[in-house]
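FAQ: What does a ligand-bound record look like?

Like this one, built around adenosine-5'-diphosphate:
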Amino acid sequence: MLSEFDLIKHYFAPSRAAAQPAHVALGIGDDCALLAPTPGMQLAISSDMLVEDRHFFAGEDAQRLGHKSLAVNLSDLAAMGARPLGFTLALALPAADPAWLAGFSQGLFALADAHGCALIGGDTTKGPLNICITVFGETAPGRALRRDAARVGDDIWISGTLGDARLALAGYRGETALSAAEQQAAAQRMHLPTPRVALGRALADGGLAHAAIDISDGLAGDLGHILERSGVGATLDVDALPAGPVLATRAPALRRAWTAAGGDDYELCFTAPAAARAAILAAGAASATAVTRVGRIEAAPGLRLADAAGAPLDLRLAGFDHFK
Ligand code: ADP
Ligand code: MG
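The answer part, i.e. the structure of the complex:
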């Protein structure tokens, strides 16, 4: 049986100290970690918790879970345009299962290493499976992509594609018929989201975007947070929303519903002045991330949905809310 300390040493602190990035002055093993952000930069900090049966199914593949736990946190840094520095991991585990720990740490570190984001500490306890990560990033003062910064006349942009994660959920629940290949392709998006860190940083560093948010609970609801915090409204061109490859093969009604209000997309929704269009397309190309213009910010409050011809669409869209 693994002790708590063996478990941490073996799976979460294995000879990583040597490969520690310069911004980690002291990593795992003491009472606190010490971070050394670039002088003059602000720290960007965010936490996301993943709870079994709430955010993932019991028995979920450990490696995918390791990836997703960190990906949803990196997505928050991306939405601020921050550069990842490090993260802590608070873990409640029902048992010290070596196969599970090996898979989880593999998925976790593959993504962490790809982003130069070091595991700098955490806590480990026995209990129902619960994974809470806190990420630390840095951003230049005045450059962060805040929710309250959208301006009237801004374009609204989306990274990547939307809706395939929602389609995968419908497939698992038997609400939609999907072939095995379709289910697998759509489920990739649900289990292995790609945090748009490079795009977010390019938008912030280049001063290209005004406001941004990452889409976790459905575009309409998440864009609504930008509108509310910025004191503006918007029209969304629903037929311009880029659907994931599997959802793109479905009927227009489903496509509209789940691009506009899916869930678990982890794409960026950002607003930017029309003058930045060419630079934003270049930033998308440089970060190998599709970017699509899907609407505009207006003075009249509220979110209006329009079809390809510009006619109003009346979709009943529900954002995801844990307490509804
Ligand atoms: P403390 O007694 O101060 O709570 P712990 O015994 O919980 O410290 O942890 C010892 C060290 O291991 C600390 O540096 C802590 O940050 C780190 N640690 C504990 N759990 C994890 C984990 N799941 N991942 C990474 N580091 C961890
Ligand atoms: Mg502790």
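Follow-up question: can I read anything off the structure? Yes, for example: The first helix runs from residue 4 to 12.
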